């Protein structure tokens, strides 16, 4: 605990969430999807559930964007909802899917947490979810997009979620993001709350992957 309280926040986040990150990244559902052992329908369900929780995440981010804790982190260039909508339009061949998406229980729990954070304007906890999702997307997203194309024949216009067109150079952006994390004006209590919430965020993602697997097995 002492190390996570004294280390730069970006390092503390990486260290304190390592186990939860590993669990989420290597869930059975994601392993099978990335190995090409599932199908395009499973990918569509993942993107539909992602659309639901990213909508909540980005609404919460806008709610705290002016807070000193969030101002240097929240960036419209990261927003994924427009690209998810475009991808799902391409995957479904129409826009009708918006009225027919079923929110799975794990997604509902995730969305509720994000909505609560936005309503309470808890910038520290918002940054935890922001870090878990967007830095992960920046780190491995393009590879996932290519794998979806290779394994399932998904078209280029259905994987725009994985391409940050407003961020031409990802590595410097990630470096600047981590530097901004390290410079956040956090109290000790804020920092501890943020670190705890980041571990929770990975668990929400793990539960989401497990929930999709369970729903598709029925």
Automatic annotation (TrEMBL):
The keyword Cytoplasm does not apply. PROSITE patterns: HEME_OXYGENASE. Heme b binds at residues 14, 21, 131, 178. It catalyses: heme b + 3 reduced [NADPH--hemoprotein reductase] + 3 O2 = biliverdin IXalpha + CO + Fe(2+) + 3 oxidized [NADPH--hemoprotein reductase] + 3 H2O + H(+). SUPFAM superfamilies: Heme oxygenase-like. GO terms for biological process: heme catabolic process; heme oxidation; response to oxidative stress. Its EC number is 1.14.14.18. It comes from the Bacteria. GO terms for molecular function: heme binding; heme oxygenase (decyclizing) activity; metal ion binding. Pfam families: Heme_oxygenase. Keywords: Heme, Iron, Metal-binding, Oxidoreductase. Signal peptide: none annotated. This is heme oxygenase (biliverdin-producing).
